[in-house]
Amino acid sequence: MRCVHSTAQKQSWLTYVLKFYYITLLRDPVSRYLSEWRHVQRGATWKTSLHMCDGRTPTPEELPSCYEGSDWSGCTLQQFMDCPYNLANNRQVRMLADLSLVGCYNMSTVPEKKRAQLLLDSAKKNLRDMAFFGLTEYQRKTQFLFERTFRLRFIRPFMQYNSTRAAGVDLDNTTIQRIEELNELDMELYDYAKDLFQQRYQYTRQQERRQQRIKNHMQQSHQGLGINLWPSHSRQSLVSKLEDVEREEREEGGEGGRTEEVGNRLPTEDYMNQIINRW
Questions:
Q1: How many structural domains comprise the chain?
Q2: Phi and psi for 48 in degrees, rounded to 5?
Q3: What family does the database annotate (predicted)?
């Protein structure tokens, strides 16, 4: 039997347009670095990664390997830090930046200091332009912003897990300082991201509370009057309620933005097995 489709049906199919949103999650650079070291230590490799940039992959001279053999399993943290070609260094900036601005993996095209600044500026710009980004160390706020940005609701709240593999590594101050130096760009990006993240969180909270206050004021007005107002009176009443809301906001002075940091080491939380359903 032949299936016949009407012109209207064909046209309706053309109305479906896919829209993509770029999102990312950032993590405290020291914790992220230690986590990758633990992952590599257990035998993980990035051999399947093409590192494609400007239509080509880097040559072995542009991106030498840190180890010989099939993997780098069993490497010590010192060995991990000592490799100058380790892509774990400043990985978050490199993953977010436009590498074509600096000649991709060819280190000879742009002076080192200028290269670093170009990559950092590019990563910041791309982060700002993303529809959403979250911070692993601020999981509840990340969930709040994700749900309000995409009008989705997680069935369960994000949980905080402090006993990660990275948190279990006992480090002295010298080692921590060395990791921070190796990830200097990531450290700057993360500080920038935290400030931007808090601004977005505070703004979203204030907008939500403002809408709720207006709703509460209007409900109280209707309940108290028990009658329908004339249009002119309705507008006057709404203006009055908006002024009340603005006055309350000025008196309150905004929310303090309580941090979720615990102790000296920033906690991390698990995003796995989170089920989403539509509002």
A1: 1
A2: -80, -10
A3: Belongs to the sulfotransferase 6 family.
For residue 136, what are the domain limits? 1-203
Q: Does residue 257 come out as left (phi exceeding 0), alpha (psi in the -120 to 50 range) or beta?
A: left
pLDDT at residue number 163: 64
| Structural domain includes residue 86 | yes
Q: How confident is the model over 40-87, as pLDDT tens digits?
A: 999 999 999 999 999 999 999 999 999 999 999 999 999 999 999 999
Asked whether residue 258 is domain-assigned, the answer is no
The helix or strand, by DSSP H or E, that contains position 197, with its residue range, turns out to be helix 184-225
Mean pLDDT, rounded, of the chain: 82
Are 277 and 155 spatial neighbours (Cβ–Cβ below 8 Å)?
yes
Kindly report the CA angle at 121 between 177 and 126, in degrees rounded to 5?
110
Q: Is residue 85 part of a domain?
A: yes
Residue 61 lies in a domain: yes
Tokens of residue 247, six digits: 């006055």
